[in-house]
Amino acid sequence: MMGHSHALSGVVGWMAIVPLVQGTEILGVRFDLGPGEIIAGSFVCAGAALLPDLDHKSATITQTYGVVTKTLGALLNWLFGGHRNGTHSFLFALIMGVLTQALALWSDMAVQVFVFLLTGIALNGLGFGMDKNRTAAEVINAMGTAGIVLALYTSGVDYSWMGLAVAFGCLLHFAGDMATEMGVPLLWPASKYRFGKNMGFKTDGPIERKVITPLLTIAIVLYSIYLFPWAEMLPEA
Question: Is the pLDDT of residue 237 over 50?
Fold first, then answer.
């Protein structure tokens, strides 16, 4: 799938699980999600849903922060055996989830930096950029991202769920790519078998552009109409 579809799936995926996990405890993390957490989680999950493609030099995420993401992408490409190999495995999702959860426990400032990075990636993936003027797009993206992160910070958003949201975003990416023709090696490095290979639609083909993307967009609108009035009625923690 293309970057914008992955980003949209991250938003939809987070919104879809909010009613399911609300008030529960998963792996020691208590989910008490208000409007701020819904918005923050949507951006985090959307950005995380692009992380597995960091191993591709032309991917949306690799282009987001210039030389920083390009260098990191080249490193991941080398470490995980090229595009759509190790970065598209359960191992990668686990590593990303553990690392970001460790950040959440270690430092509030580290969390804010990571939220900034993922939000910027999400905005880029969702199409908030200008291909004809890359510099202007990067400045606008950074300003918009900073405003969003600051607003979330001042509203007191709790990011104790960070690692789980990042891992979940990666899993959503895998699900999207399994629906395409190439499939993904979920069990790498134990196995290179590609789940879903030759069984789905063509990446950026008519099905993705005319069916998948519109449906994901509609889902975001519907979930927003349902979730935010519902979340506002939740009792204060």
Answer: no
Mean per-residue pLDDT of the chain = 87
For residue range 218-230, what is the model confidence (pLDDT) as tens digits?
A: 999 998 888 876 5
- Number of Cβ within 10 Å of residue 160's Cβ equals 16
Place of tokens 């580290």: 110
Q: Which residue has the tokens 């990571």?
A: 114
Q: What string of H, E and C letters represents the secondary structure of the chain?
A: CCHHHHHHHHHHHHHHHHHHHCCCEECCEECCCCHHHHHHHHHHHHHHCCHHHHHCCCCHHHHHCCHHHHHHHHHHHHHCCCCCCHHHCHHHHHHHHHHHHHHHHHCHHHHHHHHHHHHHHHHHHCCCCCCCCHHHHHHHHHHHHHHHHHHHHHCCCCCCCHHHHHHHHHHHHHHHHHCECCCECCCCCCCCCCECCCCCECCCCHHHHHHHHHHHHHHHHHHHHHHHHHHHCCCCC
Peptide bond into 19 cis (omega under 30): no
Average pLDDT over residues 190-197: 91
**Domain spans, the chain:** 3-232
pLDDT, mean of residues 120-126: 89
Q: What is the pLDDT of residues 170-183, one digit of tens each?
A: 999 999 999 888 88
At 40 the pLDDT is 95
Distance CA 17, CA 40 (A): 14
Selection from 151, 126, 142, 141 nearest residue 220 by Cα: 126
Region 121-150: mean pLDDT is: 77
